[in-house]
Design goal:
about 120 residues; alpha+beta; S16 Ribosomal Protein, Chain: A; 4 helices; about 25% strand
């Protein structure tokens, strides 16, 4: 059984509210969980005190037992100085142009090279 510290969605349509929970990684997102460790309300301003609430001592306990936080929860825990703050994702592969755009750029470069050769 692998434990995850993750978000479970609640709230109404278009008004999300998340619980930060400890759950088995195989259970569904909003399904059964072991313990509620805090809340996250994305509708509040970033500076608002109640945007993210955590039970720090329980989070430390579960991290000590071997639970792994998801990417989003790891950022919350880093902001709360409970773990080392993870680096922001930097994915140059996703940022690169897709195959068709690369083909178009290659064709344009060849055309520009041919035009420069003539002139």
């Amino acid at each position: 059984m692998s434990l995850k510290i993750r978000l479970a969605r609640g709230g109404a349509k278009k008004r999300p509210y998340y619980s930060i929970v400890i759950a088995d990684s195989r259970s569904p997102r909003d399904g059964r969980f072991i313990e509620k460790l805090g809340t996250y309300n994305p509708m509040l301003d970033r500076e608002h005190a109640d945007r993210v609430t955590l039970k720090a001592e329980r989070v430390q306990h579960w991290l000590g037992v071997g639970a792994l936080p998801t990417d989003r929860v790891a950022r919350f825990l880093g902001d709360a100085r409970l773990i080392e703050k993870p680096p922001l994702p930097d994915n140059p592969i996703k940022a690169a142009p897709k195959a068709r755009a690369q083909e178009r750029a290659k064709a344009a470069a060849e055309a520009a090279g041919a035009a420069a050769g003539r002139g």
